[in-house]
User: Which sequence fits this backbone?
């Protein structure tokens, strides 16, 4: 079945550092790929998405490119801020019905001054 | 802008008790979902619904039941609570017919079974 593998956290960075959170997937067909973010005490929010190979999703300075050849969707940001501290989830939308998503285990990011 | 509303936010149950987690959305979404989030395990789909009167099992449905009598509401029922059901529960909804539409999440219910 479909699966998503994320790098384990926590990831601790200094403010203005470069961020990469790795995500790879296994899926049949051509899924859509997502990054969701969860701030403390809140539900998940969509951060960005890409629906086909070579698409780049971007939002709030974060970017991720759908790489079919490496089955990856790594999240990057050039300069993180303390306010980016959160848990980041990679997810894929499968080929089956019901619009269901399969999530990775999440990566906690801590940004320090 | 209420979005997806879950109640309660916190609950402690004794083993064998039952309860219903409430979820309602005001976006007229057809799709609704219940996920549980365990530490280090990501989110697992419990049940989902593609419209009023239609529900289906997700990845981890055992010990739970759902109903979808209206478009707005999608309650999750625990009949005989067990410690393994200690988790954070998230309800979500989506309006898209095609794959990969955006999910809107509630703020979660933290449940402890002791």
Assistant:
């Amino acid at each position: 079945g479909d699966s998503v593998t994320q790098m384990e956290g926590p990831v601790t960075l200094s403010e203005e550092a470069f961020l990469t959170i790795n995500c790879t997937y296994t899926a049949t067909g051509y899924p859509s790929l997502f990054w969701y973010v969860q701030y403390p005490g809140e539900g998940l929010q969509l951060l960005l998405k890409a629906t086909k190979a070579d698409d780049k999703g971007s939002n709030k300075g974060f970017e991720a490119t759908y790489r079919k050849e490496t089955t990856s969707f790594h999240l990057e940001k050039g300069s993180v801020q303390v306010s980016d501290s959160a848990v980041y989830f990679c997810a894929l939308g499968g080929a089956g019905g019901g619009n269901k998503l399969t999530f990775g285990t999440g990566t906690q990011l801590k940004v320090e001054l | 802008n209420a979005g997806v509303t879950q109640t309660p936010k916190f609950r402690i149950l004794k083993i064998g008790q039952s309860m219903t987690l409430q979820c309602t959305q005001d976006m007229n979404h057809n799709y609704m979902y219940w996920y549980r989030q365990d530490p280090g395990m990501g989110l697992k789909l419990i049940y989902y619904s593609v419209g009023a009167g239609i529900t289906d099992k997700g990845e981890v449905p055992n010990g739970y039941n759902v109903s979808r009598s209206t478009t707005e509401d999608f309650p999750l029922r625990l009949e005989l609570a067990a410690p393994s059901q200690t988790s954070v529960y998230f309800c979500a909804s989506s309006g898209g017919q095609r794959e990969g539409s955006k999910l809107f999440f509630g703020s979660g219910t933290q449940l402890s079974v002791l």
About this structure: The two ends of chain B are 35 Å apart (CA to CA). Chain B touches chain A at residues 4, 31, 33, 35, 40-43, 45, 48, 50, 56, 58, 90, 92, 94, 96-103, 105-108 (CB under 8 Å).
